[in-house]
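#onboarding

Welcome to the new folks! Below is a worked example of what a typical request in this channel looks like: someone posts a single protein sequence, and someone else replies with the predicted structure as tokens. Don't worry about understanding the tokens yet, we'll cover that in week two.

Example request:
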Amino acid sequence: MMPNVGPMEILVVLIIALVVFGPKKLPELGNSLGKGIREFKGSISGNDDEKPRVEEHPVPSEKTPV
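Example response:
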């Protein structure tokens, strides 16, 4: 039988991750974990031929000197 995971257990795991990896690495780890999960779900569902996402960067506006 699998034990229930409550909020206290999740908090302990997050604190341990913060101590082990540090605050600067946690966002990168979360991003790579999310990307891996998306790729895994895509490979299982057969959506490998989807269009790659293109990040849009704002074009700097040219201000005319007055």
